[in-house]
Predict the structure.
Amino acid sequence: MALLDIRNLTVAFDTSVGLFKAVDGIDVSVDAREVLAIVGESGSGKSVAMLAVMGLLPASATVTADKMEFEGKNLMAMTAQQKRRIIGKDIAMIFQEPVASLNPCFTIGFQIEEVLSRHMGLNGRAARDRAIELLQLVGIKDGADRLGAFPHQMSGGQCQRVMIAMAIACSPKLLIADEPTTALDVTIQKQILDLLVKLQADTGMGLIMITHDMGVVAETADRVIVQYKGHKMEEADVLTLFENPASNYTRALLSALPENAVGDRLPTVADYNFAHDLGAGQ
Amino acid sequence: MLRYILHRLALVIPTLIGITICSFGFVRLIPGDPILALSGERGVSAERYAALVTKYGFDKPIWEQYFRYIGQVLQGDFGDSLATHRPVISEFLKLFPATVELAVFALIFAIVLGVPAGIFAAVKRGSWLDQGLMGTALVGYSMPIFWWGLLLIIFFSGYLGWTPVSGRIGLQFFLKPVTGFMLIDSLLAGNFDAFVSALRHLILPTIVLGTIPLAVIARQTRSAMLEVMGEDYVRTARAKGLSGNRVIGLHALRNALIPVVTTIGLQIGVLMGGAILTETIFSWPGIGRWLVDSIYKRDYAVVQNGLLIVAVIVMVVNLLVDLLYAFINPRIRVQSS
Amino acid sequence: MTTVGNAAETRKPVSGLREFWHYFSQNRGAVLGLIVLSIMVLIALFAPVLAPHAPELQYRDALLRPPVWQEGGSWTYVLGTDAVGRDMLSRLMYGARFSLIIGAVVVVLALLGGITLGLIAGYFRGWVDVVIMRVMDIILAFPSLLLALVLVAVLGPGLVNAMLAIALVLQPHFARLVRAAVMAEHSRDYVTSAKLAGASHIRLMLVTILPNCLAPLIVQATLSFSSAILEAAALGFLGLGAQPPTPEWGTMLATAREFITRAPWVVTFPGLAILITVLAINLMGDGLRDALDPKLKRS
């Protein structure tokens, strides 16, 4: 049974210039122990789909799907309270801007212990010890000192490690990482990616990696979904995708990589004709 | 944090000096002879005039007069009121607690009602509740508060007879002024009826004085909450599976309160101005009414120094609010490493 | 599954003045405010024609008559009469002239002073900036009504002095605003290129930079307009603004105070007039701010 099973997901936003479909009828499924990468340009709707699963979209969004199940349980039929018992515990998410994603008024110790208190019932000494343990796991050695620090006192890389610590605090079955390294320095990017891959391998959780960087896809993913303007263009395992892409759009993305450059001009996505591929990946 | 405090203090000094220059120059700007204005005497003989000139130091150069003035002020000597012939400072201290008591109640009224109203309006953005609350707030600060006070008197005191019309306490009570605060003094004297009477007398003036701050605080809270609710860290709080109440009431509100504290600080000045009108309507024996009466009576010693004292108090309170702001904002309180 | 339209259904956004009106008119309160204010302006303009009586005429036989809907009222004096027999409706209509003119004059004075000081401070910086801003801080350190009171005490009571005092008190808000906007715009490329093309200081300030600071200025101007009306009414109420028998709404309230139990209409209507006018302006101001501030535009 798939960990996460989504069929025909559509997300429409109510805007002042009409109804806008950010996600248009896509299927996504992830198994335990699997790393799925969702790759696409900005505006392809890759984040929106996962935010819909987590229930983090604003009220102006309408989410519809034939099926949205986690571990066989229908997410769409749950009450808000039931969903809140799963979100943050069994499904966790980390975001693109780590410093902005942490509350500036509370210490990171408070924010980590909050998750432990809410889902695991840990308080006081026990929570504190577990928090230090989690910080160790994500590579922050002097955890005990760090607990009293505020987010603005830490670097982007450190903040992202804290976010990851909060996310894995309750041993989630599925971790969704929305462009976790985009806002970080190149050297830190590698560290964070390695950390995520290691945690995934150690715990056996499912990992959805949302990114626009084909390099990240190559490094981390088992399977890949390529998205464009809310449509799924292609889905394949990572080796097949890179060696023998089925969709023209994927071909376009791959040839836009500097390492694939031929000649003195880098081709753009616009050079390729893939209109007929829209929705072909279903 | 220390740097912030020192920076704020550094800004205050020139403003304080400027205020003293204004109040020093005030008497010399009014039409007519400043010496006669300060002494309140008319038709004086030439010798008396010369004596007055020496007494007030007008024979000295202007900067010497200024330093003399500053020296007196720093020693607490603000001259004598022309109406009562008693020192301005003692008149002030007698009347100040009444204004403070009223202002404190008005501010509490404004915060206790305004902040929750702003939060509800933000959470239920666009709903009837939001529009109703904000519409009411808009009416609240579009009203002339002296008219609002008169209306409340007509309705609650005149028509319903629920509240008294004027004063701080029923005429039948005489309390020894220990602190100057009626509520405290009545409790200290063990007179419960007096306490209730003082409370009843506070109701309408509190509502009237607190209406504008209430409206402004409600609107500011709403807009601060809306801004905060769109931030990434609120999304993270939701992603952690926290309850809606905790996300809004703790994660969002704690951040939204920071700009709201600044707004509350700004309302201190508004309260002082509003006190003038409120005290006039309710015959409340505070410094607002005292200042207005002094202007009518041309009691320039009071006007000159009353202005100075009020401005200094407003500045000090603003400074304290700024310090509070620095304390509750971790980005200022704790330096980045 | 719900059927929703696709991206092709989205409309093309409008531009310029029409865009402004599009956003402004979405705010029903703002449009209502505009209508009410226009009615007030019309009443003020045509008061001599619209008012049933002359505002200063005292009818000795009709003292403190109630409004037409109460016992003892009549259609001759629709909103009743005051303590010396003057028709309330006519006085209110003429009062609209005073309030609107006060608001306009004060805002124009405060704008002129504030823009000048703000431009100089923001453009030249250095000690000029420091001096001007400290003076502004000093003015802002005093509670506004108190300062206006003291200024009027110095200058003498009267409507003109009241307007000058209020303009002085409101002016620092404009100066600060303009200074902040000028400092922000000063480093922008279009200013640098104008400077390189040889534009003089004055030209740079007035022609190049100032038009780009208009949006917050307009919003502040509406706010100050309503503040001015309220402060002038307060001064009038305290007897230090417009002097009786001028039919200024605040002044009317001063003389009406002793009649709050006997003749509540003498108190209610002038204040109501102030409330309606200020509320209309504030509603418009909200609408203007939402329409002019791009950040708040909902996408």
About this structure: DSSP finds twelve helices and no strands in chain C. The interface with chain B takes residues 29, 134-135, 137-138, 141-147, 149-150, 153-154, 156, 226, 230, 233-234, 237-240, 250, 253, 257, 260-261, 264, 267-268, 270-271, 274-275, 278-279, 282-283, 286 of chain C (CB under 8 Å). The longest helix of chain C spans residues 88-124.
